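TA notes, week 10

Several of you asked for a full example with nothing omitted. So below is the full record: structure tokens for the whole chain, then the designed sequence directly under it. When grading your own attempts, check the secondary structure regions first.
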């Protein structure tokens, strides 16, 4: 599976734990979601309606060698925040080519399917799909 080293490390962290420890790790990630920079307002971000909780993202691919990703999700949505934080940790600062090469279903490797509803997992898939779409629209010649 092709993915940047930072994302592969996150996946490895999840494969090293089992059962409820996976949920605890997801909640750890939720607590580590970086805050938005002061100049970025949630109202200017793209909503991801496929997520069960409100989630907004912003993709800055002005420099295709170092794509910046920003996420906003409320504290009362720990699963959504956890997914966003996984993507931020694993993909923020990576090149457009590296992000575009990430398999759309990489999240299956996290082993959360037995613990989290398919609807919530589709939210993570939707986040990645939107990130890739934004990168493609910003990096086309």
């Amino acid at each position: 599976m092709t993915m940047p080293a930072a994302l592969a490390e996150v996946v490895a962290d999840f494969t090293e734990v089992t059962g409820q420890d996976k949920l605890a790790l997801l909640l750890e990630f939720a607590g580590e979601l970086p805050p938005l920079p002061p100049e970025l307002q949630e109202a200017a971000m793209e909503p991801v309606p496929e997520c069960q909780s409100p989630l907004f993202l912003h993709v800055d691919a002005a420099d295709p060698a170092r794509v910046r990703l920003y996420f906003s999700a409320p504290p009362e949505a720990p699963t959504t925040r956890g997914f966003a934080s996984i993507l931020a940790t694993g993909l923020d600062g990576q090149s457009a080519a590296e992000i575009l090469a990430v398999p759309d279903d990489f999240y299956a490797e996290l082993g959360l399917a037995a613990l989290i509803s398919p609807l919530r997992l589709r939210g993570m898939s939707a986040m990645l799909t939107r990130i890739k779409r934004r990168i493609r629209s910003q990096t086309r010649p």
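Residues 5-36+43-139 form a domain with the Sufe protein. Chain: A fold (CATH 3.90.1010.10). Use that as a sanity check on your answer.
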